[in-house]
Amino acid sequence: MLHNTAPKNSDRIIYALFALSGIAGLLYEGTWARYLKLFLGHSSYGQILTLCIYMGGLGIGSFLAARFSRNIRRPLRAYAITELGIGIGGLLYHPLYLYVTEWFYGAGWSAQLGSRGAEIIKIVLCIASTMPVAILLGLTFPWIASGLMRRHGDSGKVSIPILYFTNSLGAAFGLLLASYLLIPWLGTQGTLWLAAGLNTILAVSFFLIDLHNPPTDPQDSLTAPSPPPVESLSMPVPSLWLWIALLTGLTSFIYEIVWIRLLSLMMGSSTHSFDMMVSSFILGLSLGSLVSRKLLRRDALVMLALAQIFMGLLAISTVYSHSIFFEVMNLSNLFFRQTPWGYAGWNVLKYLVAVFWMVPTSFFAGMTLPFITYILGRSTRSESAVGKVYGFNTFGAIIGSIVGGLFLLPHLQLKWSLVSAAWLDILVGVVLLLVYRPAWRSKWLVWALLCAFLLPALRVNFDAHMVTSGVFRDYKDYLRTEKVWVANGKTATISFHESKVHSYIKTNGKPDASIRKDRSLPIAGDELTQAATAFVPMATRDAPYDAGMVGFGSGMSAYYLLSDPLLRRLDIVEIEQEMLNMAARFRPINARAFDDPRVHLYVDDARTFFHTHGQKYDVLVSVPSNPWVSGVSSLFSKEFYHHMQRYLKPGGTLVQWLQLYEFDNTLLLNIVRALDENFPYVVLYRIPEEPDIVILASDAPIYQKHLARFAKDSSIQAEFGRMHRPWYFFGEQNFLANSKSLRPLTKDVPANSEFIPWVDNNAEKARYAKSEVGINYALDSCTLCWPQLLDPNDFAQRKLQKDSIIALQGPDLYLEENVRHQLEIQMNSTKGIKHLAAVDVWNRIWSDFKILSLQVPYSPARDSIPEFAMMRKLVDAQQVPLEISIQFEFDDHLAHGRYREAVKMLSAFQDIFNLSAMDPPLLRQLALCAFLSGDTRVFRHIFQENYLSSPALDNSEKHLIAELLGLENLNIPLNSAIDVD
Known about the structure:
Layout: H1 8-40, H2 43-68, H3 75-106, H4 114-152, H5 159-211, H6 238-267, H7 271-295, H8 300-335, H9 340-380, H10 385-436, H11 444-454, H12 464-467, E1 483-488, E2 493-498, E3 502-507, E4 510-516, H13 526-538, E5 545-550, H14 556-561, E6 567-574, H15 577-583, H16 591-595, E7 599-603, H17 606-613, E8 617-622, H18 638-644, E9 648-659, H19 665-676, E10 681-686, E11 692-698, H20 709-712, H21 714-723, E12 735-738, H22 743-746, H23 758-769, H24 775-779, H25 787-790, H26 792-809, H27 817-828, H28 839-854, H29 866-876, H30 882-895, H31 899-903, H32 906-912, H33 920-933, H34 937-947, H35 955-965
Parallel strand pairs: 5-6, 5-8, 6-7, 8-9
Antiparallel strand pairs: 1-2, 2-3, 3-4, 9-11, 10-11, 10-12
């Protein structure tokens, strides 16, 4: 038997190149997960199916390699050809995905399948489009392993552990590379093309390497027979090793599924967090593979059995030690500031936490395959053992992914899903030692210590308060006074919390909906947002209508929408059954959302549901979680909006909630641009007292023309009475902007896309940094704001709606009585006092007057409000300081539309005031009067001298002004700099 004794440097090149193969392989898995979760409708399902297809393809490919390896005389050339095939598949995947999904949703036959049938067809299409490339990936390891085994002639003792190590290390690095760099820069399609480029490089490189190697025989891979050591004489039959490989794959992936859910609670359920977890798990596999090379010199059966036992013990130890990791993540808020560098450091800490949690267990899991492959290869004297072991292991991984995610978690919950898999690992190791190594039967101390370590698992559980405390938030001991109920569903962990003041629901530790328990107080917080998503679109309707809703939450959005007598039917689609179960704990407050005969609840993926039920709606309400949560950002993408158009009637309205806290201007504009590309009319309304907005999109103009019916309809009036809010609370006075008025800002901002996911890539950073959308303050149209300039026709229509409310309620309906009362006392106190002797008094008066002024829309009707009339008399009598007099006269010009007179006062403002230190409303009024008057000569100079240096004005507003002035060379960023303090 002749062996090819290639130089060591050649082997090192091969190992390094195979690390590139690992990078490419995980680039495929990472991008496939993003594609498939979009098609299936939820990230958890997409992740599980991706694992099944990826591992299934590896398994099938491994079995095919095992079947045909004996006929392959040039395995390195076969590897090169396989890499070329993978590269071609990577180039074709994106257009194939677009064709398949559009064909499915556009076909009439698929709409007749029903939800279950459609889900099955979706899975079949995912498998058909993805599995061929996955099978080719499964061929790569056996081919390259066969080539090196024949070069060394040692049954893989040297090459297999190093191949496992380099490939897995490349995979761990590749997933992070895709998550943080490639997909944000290149998008999913660009990342696939890069992976295809790596495959092409590998194909060419290994073809050249193979040219310098002669053909080989499969027998060249085998070590010459030698007398086995005494302790190795008793070995299981060969087929048993394959079943052990299957079991270790099964348990490993149960660990991974359970830990991903747990670490999502601890690290946040963002896409970046998920990628970190998988990368950490694979890193442990790679390190274990490397160490196993040294241990193959010993009794491989004993080493394998001990690896199985330690794998199970370390998995159980995470139950005992979980609170330490959660404490570290909660305390990280004290370690790192909310800055870009702080976010980078926090991500490093997050990855280290994942490594310390996962790597100890996956380290021993990584040892198992090299041990099993080596043992089976020597016992069968066939290099096909590589493919068989790899194949059985991957099929075990598939079973573990499905069983762990869809059955164990919902039924056994987190702890017992983990412990049952750990006990199975330990049982395998113990049986191997007791049956095949009799000397271990007398090691009573070892078995006693093992039992002592396992027994606490019967009583110790995950701390419900700790694991649901939420990422980015400091854990507070007072939270332990709350009652907590936790349920692990198929897609998420849902918890219900009850304090003395609120009841609220969390998804994977993130609060999603809360309700104030004392119903004698005005509704506040999350409930305001839930009410707004119902009442804002209701005010645009005056005829019977049908509505659909994506997401149930606390049920209060549905509850308020069902208060409308015009609503005929409400279909609610919620993907997680446990969300409905937990929301039932809000009863009787939200009882209508469950009991009203017009409501129909479905547990399903929204896209599948709407496609197969064949209904079109007048109103579609989407109330997703925060966009930084994995999978949620796709509900704010241009593809999602295009898809939802199918299910709206002509004139129908899409309604969506969006946070403005822990978000930023660019992310908001990414979403507005995506809407603008799909709907001709897009409108943003602020939610009073909350840092949130409601977005309405339609193919018809959107106005709250029918808000007045709230004052006349007894059932709606009764609901506002229970909310302790006036009937016009969610009215047109909350209008911010439409998409047309925002185009000067969105023209250079890309639309959020499922394939270039701007929001998914950046929302977590905005969440961590606690940044805030600032453009909404500029758009708030309570007085003179940008909508009047940017879309005057639309503004005029909305002014008619607001004037109709004033006609019903009087001009002072917006005024806060406590502010008015305090102001009246202060203004009366100035009588008989010379203004120069009362500067401090006047400063306080003017400060309160500005608050009052901002609450009232500009119109001549202001003159009938007593406080405004009193201020006019004081100004006319010259009883106020000059600075206040100038501001009042300027404000009065604007209220009466006298913009040419107002713009003449700009020079006086520049001479008297330090404009860089002035409040944003005044700076905004100076800018708008210049644009509305058509004379920007003086203002252009003021802008460059004062506005650019003003810390009070949001960067988005500076950017807008620069655009309107034609000063595009200033390159003002849309987002404000993050405060380093």
